[in-house]
Amino acid sequence: MKRVVVTGLGCLTPVGNNVGDFWQSITAGKHGFGEITKFDASDLKVRIAGEIKDFNPEEYIEKSDIRKTDIYAQYAISAASQAVEESGIVGNIDAKRLGVYIGSGIGGISTFINETIKMHTKGPQRISPFFIPMMIANMGSALVAMKYGAMGPNLPTVSACASATNAIGEAFRAIKYGYADAIITGGADACINPLAVGGFINCQALSTTNDPDNSSVPFDKRRDGFVIGEGAGVIVLEEYEHAKKRNAKIYCEISGYGNTNDAHHMTAPHPEALGATELIRLTMEESGLSADEKLYINPHGTSTPLNDKTETLAIKNVFGELAYKLPISSTKSMIGHMLGAAGGCEAIASIKTIETGIVHPTVGYKEFDPDCDLDYVPGAARKMDIDKAMSISLGFGGHNAAIMFNKI
């Protein structure tokens, strides 16, 4: 079996359109929430979100192709471009051994909305010929493959909020077992529109606080739902010897992956955290790493009442008393829930934690909840000796995914 390492990072987030700005913001405890500007949300119960700011797709995509590409896929291409450029992988790999695994929870929903309105107002003959390829959730992955001539395995995962983490985990396994030498992997989503926001409101998933400073408060007693975000997070995974041979920059190693399902409810986690507990156990087992105080956990940490409670339970189920000594901080406290992109950005946060030894805070955490009694790094970032980091994602439908990174 092969060892797998990380050689490139790229992201678009509500707190920065590249990894440097993203990392600087979250270690400073800066969130990216504000009034929704993408549409008039004045008649909705929720009026704030984590929007991407100052995005220019022409930096990454030919102008003639932009109108044929849904915004979620534009985000995917942009983040992938950053990661690929940093890695230097293109031109240094057999195209048949380069893959792309970029997931999306929902895909081209903005295109779906626009073309549905067009059909009802102007008739079906006016539907865009690009409607289907723009809408389908595999197209971000496909377009990245086309851009870089990546003819190897291509597997865009769709597992709700676990999509990016599943994509990274499956990419890790594909390289580990010899099916590719490198894979561009992560997730992208763009769902800040009236239909998606209204749908999440009506299924009672979003915070209705409408206070940018106090709406996304993971593990806090006041939590009442998540703040929706958008963007993309993409990394380049590469077989260790392949990366070493070409003198690539190596951030860290990826050594473990877990994938389970609660088999319980469409939106609620299992009350005894059975699936999440097994998820963490399996990820630790495959990594072969010992559990100690040098482990950082980047949790799903959505700021929803049930998720934060059961995720805390799962961590305690696996680590026992050690759980109280582990630093655990939610990136969603600053970028919101980026849905299928969340795990990609949280993987980057985990990787940067190993690289820098800085654990970013859980911003907005103020009030203790006895059901959430672990160390969520409130207040400010900490300088710590971290040599391994686990990123956890828990999605609607009971989809659970986790990945483990470690110093090499």
Nearest-integer average pLDDT: 98
Low-confidence stretches: none
* Through-space gap between termini: 16 Å
Largest sheet: 8 strands, mixed
- Gyration radius, rounded: 20 Å
Order of helices and strands: EHEEHHEHHHHEHEHEHEHHHEEEE
CATH homologous superfamily name?
Thiolase/Chalcone synthase
CATH topology value = Peroxisomal Thiolase, Chain A, domain 1
The tally of helices reads: 13
Strand content: 15-25%
Structure commentary:
The protein has 408 residues and is an alpha+beta fold. The protein has one domain: 3-Layer(aba) Sandwich (Peroxisomal Thiolase, Chain A, domain 1), CATH 3.40.47. It has helices spanning 19-27, 63-66, 71-87, 109-122, 131-135, 139-148, 163-176, 194-202, 240-245, 274-287, 305-319, 332-335, 342-356; strands at residues 4-12, 34-35, 48-49, 98-103, 182-189, 231-239, 252-261, 295-298, 358-359, 382-383, 388-395, 399-406. α7 (163-176) crosses α13 (342-356). The chain starts with a strand and ends with a strand. The mean pLDDT is 98.
